[in-house]
Please model this.
Amino acid sequence: MKKTLLFLLFNVVILTLGAQEIAVLKYKGGGDWYSNPTALPNLIKFCNKHINTKIDEKPRTVEVGNSDIFQYPLVYMTGHGNVFFSDDDAENLYNYLVSGGFLHIDDNYGMEPFITKELKKVFPNATLVELPANHPIFSNAFEFKNGLPKIHEHDGKRPQAFGIFYEGRLILLFTYESDLGDGWEDPEVHNDPEHVRQKALKMGANIVKYAFEN
Model:
């Protein structure tokens, strides 16, 4: 086990050194991890144009328990329904995050009760804490003075950004009641006004920039 962990830690240092790639997280439990298929490619195009990234416009898919996750400095997770992490999944995800990886979980509606339960397997002693509006992730590229923007309406709740920290570093971001991914999708999918889509894309660019630089 120690040799495996050292190997994975070595890989994350080497493979993410200067890397600028994003992967979609595939998880078990029956939830639609594949939802919003045009979202991430559109966000990547926006980032490559506006914050000078050089990300492959065709994001890869990586499974929670696969060591390939260590190749990506940022992994994006979304969906509407159930999520399940096996013990091996939880261990792999933990090692990835504490070794320098970053996970953005974007609740596409209905995901919250499942993901919060499964995150306890990954971080038994940590809790999701709400990020204040003055956190750098809301201003590092584009300014969001009020914090996470509201993109898609579901239950009339305010948008909230929660995080898990490790040794002072934000390693996991959970965006709730915002639905950024809907705003990243092609315009005709949700018919969101352009100014709403721009807010979503700009906030997404902030997340990408933060994940790559911290």
About this structure: Residues 2-213 form a domain with the Rossmann fold fold (CATH 3.40.50.12140). The longest strand covers residues 169-176.
